[in-house]
Amino acid sequence: VFVLAFGISVLVIALGLFPIARVNGSTLWHRDLSAMTGALEHFRQKAAEKDQKIPGFDNVDSNAKRNIFEEMIIQAVVHEALGEFGADLSSEVSDTMQKASDTGDRAKLVEAVQGLYGMSYAEFEDRILRPEAEEIVLRKHVEASGKVYGEWLGERLKRAQVKIYFLPYLWNDGKLIDA
Description:
The protein is mainly alpha-helical. It has helices at residues 2-15, 30-49, 62-82, 90-101, 106-117, 121-144, 149-159; strands spanning 19-23, 26-29, 162-164, 169-172, 175-178. A three-stranded antiparallel sheet has the order 2-1-3.
């Protein structure tokens, strides 16, 4: 029994199948943080191969991981907030994603995503395109209601219920801080 429990524990940790945070009831997973930091590292390596220096992308350090984690929290708040604007906005999000990825040559786009980020196009859609499209749609609806998006989002982030596990951070007044 101990060996089985130990084996399962090792597998869960290796696959990143453990929560790192709860944001207003939604779970953020270690595998997603690892995938995003891996994509950033892959991008940085590809830029270095071409001798392109990109400010802020010199290395994937703990600050980059922290920023990605904070962005994941913001994305969870944005995703939840979409439901507050009445009608189902998923078709509007899908349309926004389609417009953003409509390059005319799908094969080249898929190849570019794999080359630049080291992820499949489906992962790219899920981890990068969808959150960006959700924020674009939310911004449009918030501003249409007469509010300033940055202020509105700042208030939402301050009220967010965030519990962080296994990482050296705290959520304080709408911002991620070191513990």
